[in-house]
Specification:
This protein has ten helices and five strands; from the N terminus they run αααααααβββαββαα. By secondary structure, the chain is α+β, with helices and mostly antiparallel strands. It has two domains: 103 residues, Ribosomal Protein S4 Delta 41, Chain A, domain 1; 87 residues, RNA-binding S4 domain (Structural Genomics Hypothetical 15.5 Kd Protein In mrcA-pckA Intergenic Region, Chain A), CATH 3.10.290. The chain has a five-stranded antiparallel β-sheet. Helix 4 crosses helix 5, helix 5 crosses helix 10 and helix 6 crosses helix 7. It is elongated and about 50 Å long.
Length: 206
C-alpha cells in the first residue's frame, strides 16, 4: 500500500497501525487531531447507510492491506462455510501469514511483515514461504530463516514490540530461537478486531 498512511487512518476514523511504533506514540496524528484529512475535514459529515457499510469495508481492506478482488474472494469463501460469515471472514484475514508475523511481534507493521516475507526471511514448518497471503493453520510454526541477517531483523522488531500483548491463539518461544506457534485457529472471542463484521457482510452481500 502506497501513499500517506496517516491520512488513511484519519479518513477511516480509526488507527490502522500502518506505521509501526509511531502509531503507539503521541506523534500519531490520530492522537493529535483525528479529524478527516483535507481543507474541510473538520466539518461534520453525515454518512448514509450505504456510506457506513462501505467505510467499514474500506477499513478492513486498509487494515489488512488487501485489494478489493482478493477481499471479495475471501468473502465468497467465508460465505460458503456454515455459521457466521463475518466471523469466518475475520478468521481468514487473521490467518494471513503477514498478519500472523505482525501479531507475533516479529515485524513493525503488516507492511513490514509483507516485505520480510517476500524477501525470504521466514520459514513456516521449516519451509521457505514468500507469499504474504498464505494461510496458516493450527500447529504451524513460524520462525526466521537461519541466516544471521534474518534473525537480527526479527530480534530488533521483537525487542521493540514485545511489550504489546500477544493474542491468546499464538505463542512465542523467545531467544535464541524466536519460534512462533499457531496454538489454535482464532475464535470469534479471540479475534478482537476493531471492525463491525456484520456491516461488511451486509455490504459485500448486496
Amino acid at each position: 500500500m502506497i501513499g500517506p498512511k496517516c491520512r488513511l487512518c484519519r479518513r477511516a476514523g480509526m488507527k490502522l497501525f500502518l506505521k509501526g511504533t509511531r502509531c503507539d506514540t503521541a506523534k500519531c496524528p490520530m492522537e493529535k487531531e483525528g479529524r478527516p484529512p483535507g481543507q474541510h475535514g473538520a466539518k461534520r459529515l453525515r454518512l448514509t447507510d450505504y456510506g457506513i457499510h462501505m467505510r467499514e469495508v474500506q477499513r478492513a481492506k486498509r487494515l489488512y492491506g488487501v485489494l478489493h478482488r482478493q477481499f471479495a474472494r475471501y468473502y465468497r469463501e467465508a460465505a460458503l462455510q456454515p455459521g457466521n460469515t463475518g466471523d469466518h471472514l475475520m478468521q481468514v484475514l487473521e490467518r494471513r501469514l503477514d498478519n500472523v508475523v505482525y501479531r507475533l511481534r516479529f515485524a513493525m507493521s503488516r507492511d513490514h511483515a509483507r516485505q520480510l516475507i517476500l524477501h525470504g526471511h521466514f520459514r513456516v514448518n521449516g519451509r521457505k514461504v514468500r507469499i504474504p497471503s498464505a494461510q496458516v493453520g493450527a500447529g504451524d510454526k513460524i520462525e526466521p530463516a537461519a541466516r544471521e541477517k534474518s534473525r537480527k531483523i526479527i530480534q530488533e522488531a521483537y525487542a521493540i514490540r514485545k511489550v504489546l500483548d500477544l493474542p491468546s491463539w499464538l505463542k512465542v518461544t523467545e531467544e535464541p530461537t524466536f519460534v512462533g506457534t499457531v496454538v489454535q485457529l482464532p475464535t470469534p472471542v479471540e479475534l478482537q478486531v476493531p471492525l463491525e463484521s456484520q456491516l461488511i457482510v451486509e455490504y459485500m452481500g448486496r
